[in-house]
Every structure is written in C-alpha cells, then in structure tokens.
Amino acid sequence: MPGMQDQMMQLVVIFGTMHLVKKLGLESPEYAPFIRSAYAVTTVAILALTFHLKGQIQRRNDTTALEYDDPTPGSQQERVVTTVAKYDLGEIAKLQKSSLFTVAIVAFMHFKFGYIQPLILQSLLPLLNLYKNPLFQIHMLGKPATDSLKRPWVPENPFAALTGGGGAAAANSSSSSSEAAAAAAPEGGSASGSGKEETRKEETRKDK
Known about the structure:
Largest sheet: 2 strands, antiparallel
Radius of gyration: 21 Å
Shape: elongated
Distance between the termini: 58 Å
C-alpha cells in the first residue's frame, strides 16, 4: 500500500525531526537566523518549482477531454467536464494557494510565539510532499498518468495512515504540511489548567 507507506514516512519525518530539534537544542535563539534562512530558501524553491510546472503545463496544452465526478469529500458528486491542461492548471493554483497559506501560518507561529520547530519541519516536508505530488511525478519525472497518478486525484487525509484512509492528492501536500506545523507547536497549559479546575470542583463536592 504505497499511499500508507508515504503517510507513515511523513509521520516518521515529523516526529523524528521534533525529537532531533529537542536533542540538539536547535530551539535556542542563536540558531534562529540560520533556520529562518533555510526555511526561506526552501519556500522560494518550492514556489519556483510550481511556476515551472505551470509553464510546462501551459506549453504542452494537453486538450485531451477529462470527464469525472467531483471526488472531493463532502461534494455533491457533480459531473465535471474539462481538459487535462485546465485540470492540471487548477491543481497547480490550489497547490500555490496552499503553500502561501502554510507560509502565513508558520510565520505567525514563529514571530508571534517564537516557535522554531515549524520552521525546521517546513524546510523538509514541502520538498518531500512536492516530490510525491502527481503534478511533479507526471510533468517533471515523466511518469504516465496511470494507477495512483490517474486523474482526478482524490484529496487525502495527511494522517490517514493512522485512521485507515488513503488516496493520492495534488493540492493536499501543503495543507498537510500546515497541519504538521501546527502539530509541532508546543502544547499550551490550558489542558492542565482545566484538569486542576475539575479537581477543585471534585474536592468541593466531597467537603459538602
């Protein structure tokens, strides 16, 4: 099951990176400028590759008809009629928007709360996700659009390996990265505070 293997690999990268960050002390402020630079380089490279892919799709202009039922979870299964080129350009646009959305989340988490782990994760995960992306596999590596690369690509749950889901996705790689970035953030103290409050209430009941 290649899909599950890819998802498990992503989980290994996430938790392995988080462990190394703590073990090597990379959360120290002295490393922040270098980590920011690495993240900036990765982000620019990813966006540059998406524009390169867009240019390739436009030059090929594959007008092969593509007709399918919308596979997006929660959709009303509307019949979609388009061409391969239009479909791929639409997926590229989704990928670029998702990438920018992830940048906004990571930047907010870093500059507002000082989190370093999301920057490190997002210097690694997007490259892995882009490599697995059907658009990259087809237009950069020249693989045929068959099997898991056959259009349309079904958006997947990035943690489906834990829940039993699966599927191939073009635009979901960056959204999974943003979820991974959120998962990397240290947990707050709200849960512990809530637990203490419940304990106080229980003691009050016993006294009564």
